[in-house]
Write a structure and sequence with these properties.
The protein is of the alpha/beta class. The protein folds into 2 domains: 164 residues, 3-Layer(aba) Sandwich (Rossmann fold); 107 residues, no CATH class. Helix 6 crosses helix 7. The radius of gyration is 20 Å and the shape is globular. The C terminus is likely disordered.
C-alpha cells in the first residue's frame, strides 16, 4: 500500500472555507478529520505524511511580487485554526524556506501517492490522487517536464507569475507536447521569452517544484546546453541562492510516516457515513 502525501494547505483551506465566522470551530475541524480520513481510505493508505507551507519562502525573495496579489484577499476565518489542528492532531509537517508543494515533490517515490487538487503538482513524476474527482494520474519524467515548460509559457496568475503574452493552455500544448527532450523544451520556451534571460530564470525558479532537497530549477538546469550569456545569468542566480541563509532551502521533512489508524487524529478509521463524501468538502 502506498504512503499518502497529503497537501494539507488545501485540506485546511477548503475545510475552513466551508464554515462561516458565526458557526462553531468544531464544524471546521470535524471536516478536516472527515476529509483526511476520506483521502486515506480512498487511496487505501495505512500511512501518510501531511505538509503545510510555513515561513520564509525563498520564492518571495527571488521575486518580490510572488503571490503579492493575494495580500488583500481575506482568508477563511478558521484557516489558522484548521492549520493548527492539522499540526497537533495529524502531525502535519510545516515547511521552512520552501513550500508544502516542494516537500510533496521531495518525498514522492515509487511507494507514495501525492494527494492534492493542484494541477501544478503534475510536474512531479509518480502517482497523483485527486480527491474531488476520486481519480489517479500517473506522471512519468517526460510528462512532468512538459507540464513545467507549458507552465513557463502560460504563467500562473494566481501566484502573480506572468508567462508569455497571448499564450494560454492550447498554444502552450501545441508548442510543447510533441517535444521529446528537455533541451528541446528549454530552447523552445526560451525563444518564446524573446531571450529575456533574467525573467525566464526568475519564473523558472518560482514555478519549479523541488524533487530533490535544496535543488531549484537553477541547480538542476546546469546539465542543459546553454549559451554563454544565459550561463552567466544562471551563475548570478546560483550565487544569489548561496547568499541566502542556510536554512532557506532546508526541507523540514524528517518526520516518520504517521499511521492513519492511530490516536494522533483523535479517532479510528471506521467506515464513513454514506453522506460523508469527498465531493461535498
Amino acid at each position: 500500500m502506498a504512503i499518502a502525501l497529503v497537501d494539507a494547505d488545501l485540506v485546511a483551506f477548503r475545510c475552513a472555507a466551508t464554515v462561516q465566522e458565526y458557526e462553531p470551530l468544531d464544524i471546521a475541524v470535524y471536516r478536516v478529520d472527515v476529509l483526511m480520513r476520506q483521502i486515506l481510505e480512498a487511496t487505501e493508505s495505512e500511512q501518510y505524511k501531511a505538509f503545510l507551507t510555513g515561513r520564509g519562502n525563498f520564492r518571495k525573495i527571488i521575486n518580490t511580487k510572488y503571490k503579492a496579489n493575494r495580500k488583500d484577499k481575506e482568508p477563511p476565518f478558521y484557516l489558522q485554526d484548521c492549520r493548527e489542528y492539522l499540526i497537533k492532531e495529524w502531525n502535519a509537517v510545516v515547511s521552512e524556506g520552501i513550500e508544502a508543494d516542494d516537500l510533496l515533490g521531495i518525498e514522492q517515490t515509487d511507494e507514495t501517492v501525492v494527494c492534492s487538487l493542484d494541477k501544478d503538482l503534475l510536474m512531479i513524476p509518480g502517482v497523483h490522487f485527486n480527491w474531488n474527482k476520486v481519480e489517479y494520474t500517473h506522471v512519468d519524467q517526460l510528462l512532468g517536464l512538459r507540464t513545467f515548460y507549458k507552465q513557463m509559457l502560460i504563467g500562473d496568475r494566481s501566484d502573480n507569475i506572468f508567462g508569455v503574452d497571448k499564450i494560454g493552455p492550447v498554444k502552450a500544448a501545441k508548442a510543447i507536447d510533441h517535444l521529446e527532450t528537455e533541451q528541446e523544451m528549454f530552447d523552445t520556451v526560451l525563444a518564446l521569452y524573446d531571450d529575456e534571460y533574467s525573467r525566464f530564470i526568475m519564473n523558472a525558479q518560482c514555478l519549479w517544484i523541488m524533487q530533490n532537497e535544496g535543488e531549484t530549477w537553477a541547480h538542476r538546469s546546469q546539465g542543459l546546453r546553454l549559451t554563454s550569456v544565459f550561463r552567466q545569468e544562471l551563475e548570478k542566480e546560483l550565487e544569489f541562492m548561496k547568499s541566502l541563509k542556510d536554512d532557506t532551502l532546508t526541507a523540514q521533512s524528517t518526520m516518520k510516516s504517521a499511521t492513519s489508524g492511530s490516536p494522533t487524529n483523535g479517532m479510528e478509521t471506521e467506515p464513513l457515513d454514506s453522506n460523508e463524501t469527498i465531493q461535498t468538502l
